[in-house]
Specification:
With 209 residues, the chain is α/β, with parallel strands linked by helices. The chain contains six helices and ten strands. The chain has two domains: 117 residues, Rossmann fold (3-Layer(aba) Sandwich); 81 residues, Dihydrodipicolinate Reductase, domain 2 (2-Layer Sandwich). Strands 2-1-3-4-5-10 form a six-stranded parallel β-sheet, sandwiched between helices. Strands 7-6-8-9 form a four-stranded mixed β-sheet, covered by helices on one side. Bound molecules: NADP nicotinamide-adenine-dinucleotide phosphate (NAP).
Length: 209
């Protein structure tokens, strides 16, 4: 596919760009301050920041290009409406790591039997938004409005624990992302499934697994 990668020099972008090329895609990197010229491309991928992501995605949709969004903390509903109007796919996964999707599934299953839960999400200090998109998605799957604790420290990548407390017992479901390679297979899968997705917003890797 002919792709644009917005944020190609970021921590995720630096890993994703060569992995997309290695998978046979043609990648046009777009960094801060560079023109968003994506007309004629098959899809755009955004891994930038909560401040600029919405404008980036809007610009890509307005040029008639499907979007895969990794940037978290965006208000995607209006962008979903724009995508729907234009007959384009807008796909977002709060977490592109397969193990994290399984963690969320298992947490949803555990909550049916152990409803008292709290979530601890731990990320690198550079992550701007809190709580994380994954923590919010997990909370909505678990139900009951569980407390979310956000930790931001150097050395961390992306980690989450879902704690279920019961009389005399504690169940912990934990996922650790140690490097940004963890996000590559999820992005490749989303690109592969784009033609099968309906126009408008689709959220979560679950939808393409
Ligand atoms: P990062 O290292 O800060 O990278 C962001 C990149 O975007 C930087 O290179 C930045 O340029 C660039 N940028 C800033 N404004 C831009 C613009 N207007 N157009 C194009 N590029 C622009 O962050 P990261 O760790 O790669 O993460 C990026 C985003 O993805 C964050 O929102 C993070 O939470 C999210 N994320 C999501 C997942 C997932 O699975 N969904 C996984 C990891 C991260 P400068 O260097 O010049 O500032």
């Amino acid at each position: 596919m002919k792709l644009a990668l917005l944020g190609d020099r970021g921590k995720v972008g630096r890993v994703l760009a060569p992995a997309l090329e290695a998978a046979g895609h043609d990648v046009r990197g777009i960094g801060r301050g560079e023109a968003i010229d994506v007309e004629g491309l098959d899809a755009a991928i955004d891994f930038t920041t909560p401040e600029v992501g919405e404008g980036n995605v809007r610009a890509c949709l307005e040029q008639g290009v499907h979007c895969v969004v990794g940037t978290t903390g965006l208000d995607l509903a209006p962008l979903g409406s724009l995508a729907q109007e234009r007959g384009l796919v807008l796909f977002h996964a709060p977490n592109f790591a397969l193990g994290a999707v399984l963690m969320m599934r298992f947490a949803q299953e555990a909550a049916a039997h152990m409803p008292r839960a709290e979530i601890v999400e731990l990320h690198n200090e550079a992550k701007r938004d809190a709580p994380s998109g994954t923590a919010k998605a997990t909370a909505s799957l678990v139900g009951g409005d569980p407390a979310i604790h956000s930790v931001r420290l150097p050395g961390l990548v992306a980690h989450q624990e879902v704690l279920f407390g019961g009389e005399g017992q504690l169940l912990t479901i934990r996922h650790d992302t140690y490097s940004r390679e963890a996000f590559v297979p999820g992005v490749l899968l989303a690109l592969e499934k784009l033609p099968q997705l309906p126009p408008g917003l689709t959220v979560g890797l679950d939808a393409v697994l």
